[in-house]
Amino acid sequence: MALECDLIIRNAEIIDGTGAARFAGDVAVSGERILAVGALPEAHATREVDAGGLVLAPGFIDAHTHDDRAILGDGRLALPKISQGVTTVVTGNCGISVAPVRAKGKALPPLNLLGEDYESCFGTFREYADLLAREKPPINAMALIGHMSLRVEAMAGDVDRPATAEETAHMRRRLEEALDEGASGMSTGLWYAPNIKAPTEEVVEVAAPLHARNALYVTHMRDEANDVLRSIDETMRIGRAVDSPVVISHHKCSMPENHGRSRETLPALEAAARLQSVAFDVYPYAASSTILQPNRLHPAVKVQITWSTPHPEARGRMLDEIAAEWGVDRVTAAERLLPAGAISFMMDEADVRRILAHPMAMIGSDGLPHDAMPHPRLWSTFARVLGHYARDEKLFTLEDAVHKMTGRTAAVFGMTDRGEIRPGAFADLVLFDADKVREVGTFADPAHPAEGIVETWVNGASAYTPAGGIASDHHGRLLVRGRAD
Ligand code: ZN
Ligand code: CU
C-alpha cells in the first residue's frame, strides 16, 4: 500500500524518547504529526531525507528556561536553543514571568533577568498568548506564572515583606485568570531577596487555584545550601497543601560546605516521590548563574561577571580581578557593578553527576538569553549532556540522555503527544550525529552553536539547519498542560 506524506526521514537510528534502545527505521510525517514509524519502502513524500544512519530523536524539551521574551519577535534569541535541537521550552521559571504584570519603571531584580523595565511585560497572560498565536515563535513554549511577577503588581513594588491577605487574594485571582488563559503552572523563586520574606502560607494561598486546573507547582527553593533538606520539606508541604505535582528547579547542593550532600537530597526526593508527585530539573555544570548579589558572595567561590549596567566592560571578567584593579574588596566591587549578573563556581562535580544520572532528572538549561556574556549552559546544555556526559564520560546511555530531555519531561509537564517518536505524536524532531555532537561554548566564550546537530523540525516543519540557521517561517506554539492541540 502506497503511503503519501509530506516528509520521510529514511535510514535513521531512531531513539524514540521512551528510554528504549535505538532501532533502525524510517519516520513518515504528515502535516504536524508523525504518520508512521518503521521500514517504509513503499511510502512517498514531498521531501525525502536520507539520515544516513544518524540519530533521529524527539525534539528536546528545555524543562527550565527564562525564554519568555526570547521566543518573541524574529526569534533570533531562540537560536541558542534551536541550534541544540530544542523544540520546546518551559518559560516563567524561578518566580519570574513576563505576564501578568501591571507595573511601571525599572524591573526589580531578579525580574530584570527578563528585561530592564516593566514595559516589556504583559498586563494579562492572554495578551502574551495572543501575541504568540499571532506571530508564532520558532519553537513551542509552555508557560508558568511567576510568584514574584504577581507580587510586584499586588504589592505595588513593595515586595520586601509578607503579602497582606488582600494582596494574597489579588495574586490568587491573577493566577487563576492566567491559568484560564493558557498558563500551565506557577513558579516561585523563594531564594531571591524580595521573596524570601514570603512565608510558606502565602505561597499556599496564592497557589490554591493550581489543583482544580491540574497545574504544576515549580520552585527555585528557598535554600539550596545548608538548608536544602528543609527546603525540600517546605516544597513538599506546599505541593501537598495545594494538591499539585511539584517540580524542583535546577536541583543542586550549593557552596563548599554542602558538597556531597546529593547523597542526602536524592534519597529525600525518592522518599517524597513515594507519597506525592515530584520531579526535578538539572543543568550539566558545576557553576550557577543569576543576578549578582554582593551580600551572598562566598569567600571560597569564584565569580565571573556576565553583565553590568554601569560597567559593561566587566562582562566575562572575574570579580577578584576587578576588585584588585580597583583596589577594593570584592563586596565593594560587586556593589559598584550593580545591576549586574554573575556566574558562581559553587558546586561539586560529583553532585552534578549524581543528580544528572538520577532517574528522576530532567534536563533544563536555566540559560539567560539576555545576558551579555552568558553562562555556557544557554548554548550548550543539551549538547554537553549528549556528547560530554553520555558519549565521552559514559555517565548514562544515549537513550537515557535523550529520555531525560524528551519523554520524561513531556510526561512530567503534561505535554500531550510530545517527547516521543511514535505514530500520532507531533513531529518535533532532531537529527544529529551521535559521534560528533558536542558543546562548543565555554565560560570564556559561550555564544556558539553546538556541533553535530544536522536538522531540527517543529510541528512537522523544518526549523533549523546549521547552514541555513532558523527557518524564516515559524511553527511553534503555546502548549497547555494536558491539552493535545
Ligand atoms: Zn532559579
Ligand atoms: Cu531559573
Question: What does the model show?
Answer:
- With 485 residues, the protein is α/β, with parallel strands linked by helices.
- The chain has two domains: 305 residues, TIM Barrel (Alpha-Beta Barrel), CATH 3.20.20.140; 58 residues, D-aminoacylase. Domain 3 (Dna Ligase, domain 1, 2-Layer Sandwich), CATH 3.30.1490.
- The protein has 13 helices and 21 strands.
- Strands 1, 2, 3, 4, 5, 17, 18, 19 and 20 form a nine-stranded mixed sheet that branches. Strands 6, 7, 8, 9, 10, 11, 12, 16 and 21 form a nine-stranded parallel sheet that branches. A three-stranded antiparallel sheet has the order 13-15-14, with no helix packed on it.
- A hairpin with an 8-residue loop joins strand 1 and strand 2.
- Helix 3 packs across helix 4, helix 6 runs parallel beside helix 7 and helix 8 crosses helix 9.
- The protein starts with a strand and ends in a 6-residue tail after the last strand.
- The mean pLDDT is 97.
- The site of copper (II) ion has 7 residues, from loops.
- Copper (II) ion binds next to loops.
